[in-house]
């Protein structure tokens, strides 16, 4: 008994198996590791203030630096980057304040870069949360009325889109406290600077 497969059957088999194979390949590629690593953040505007953590002050310029490794594995990617300050302790423990939202494009080349946020062309004063378009929200100050200082940790979430599967199964930068976070760097956010000694 012989089995013959007509061209229509062969076309149907290929129409099903090729997309499944491609999705399986992308799934394997995505499981090999993050497209981007975020390492060793440092708040360059923080100052010692007699506490375990350094202090940053409301109204001052704020910026930090970190290392980024963009792996070549996934090639060209689009990143949706959100930067947050997260309250630690106090009445609103865990509340996030959006500080910046940006979409970036990059090509993974296994390079190690050390960017600054915000860039030299941009400025961010430590005062208010922002909306999705980076407009300050005057009704959402980082420090609530009556609060003179609050421990906060600063972090990024970075969802990247390197292939079609990333639109179906979200993939984030890894390495932080939560699965979708960068490592945190913490400081005391203060409303007032102490008088000089």
What does this protein structure show overall?
- With 197 residues, this protein is mainly beta.
- The chain has two domains: 32 residues, no CATH class; 157 residues, Sandwich (Immunoglobulin-like).
- 15% of the residues lie in helices and 38% in strands.
- It is built from two helices and eleven strands; from the N terminus they run αββββββββββαβ.
- It has a five-stranded mixed sheet with strand order 2-11-10-4-5. Strands 1, 3, 6 and 7 form a four-stranded antiparallel sheet that branches.
- A hairpin with an 8-residue loop joins β4 and β5.
- The N and C termini lie far apart (99 Å).
- 21% of the residues are buried.
Could you give the topology of this structure?
Blueprint: H1 7-31, E1 36-43, E2 55-57, E3 64-70, E4 76-87, E5 96-107, E6 111-113, E7 116-117, E8 128-130, E9 136-141, E10 149-161, H2 165-168, E11 185-190
Parallel strand pairs: 2-11
Antiparallel strand pairs: 1-3, 3-6, 3-7, 4-5, 4-10, 8-9, 10-11
């Amino acid at each position: 008994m012989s089995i013959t497969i007509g061209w229509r059957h062969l076309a149907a088999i290929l129409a099903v198996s090729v997309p499944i194979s491609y999705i399986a390949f992308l799934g394997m590629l995505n499981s090999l590791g993050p497209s981007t690593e975020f390492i060793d953040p440092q708040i360059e505007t923080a100052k010692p203030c007699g506490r375990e953590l350094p202090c940053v002050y409301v109204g001052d310029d704020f910026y930090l630096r970190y290392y980024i490794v963009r792996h070549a594995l996934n090639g060209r990617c689009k990143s949706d980057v959100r930067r947050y300050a997260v309250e630690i302790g106090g009445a609103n423990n865990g509340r996030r304040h959006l500080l910046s939202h940006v979409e970036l494009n990059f090509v993974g080349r296994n390079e190690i870069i050390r960017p600054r946020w915000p860039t030299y062309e941009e400025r961010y004063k430590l005062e208010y949360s922002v909306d999705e378009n980076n407009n300050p929200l005057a009704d959402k100050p980082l420090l609530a009325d009556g609060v003179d200082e609050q421990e906060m940790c600063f972090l990024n979430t970075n969802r990247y889109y390197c292939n079609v599967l990333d639109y179906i199964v979200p993939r984030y930068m890894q390495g932080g406290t939560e699965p979708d976070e960068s490592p945190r760097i913490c400081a005391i956010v203060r409303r007032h600077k102490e008088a000089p000694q």
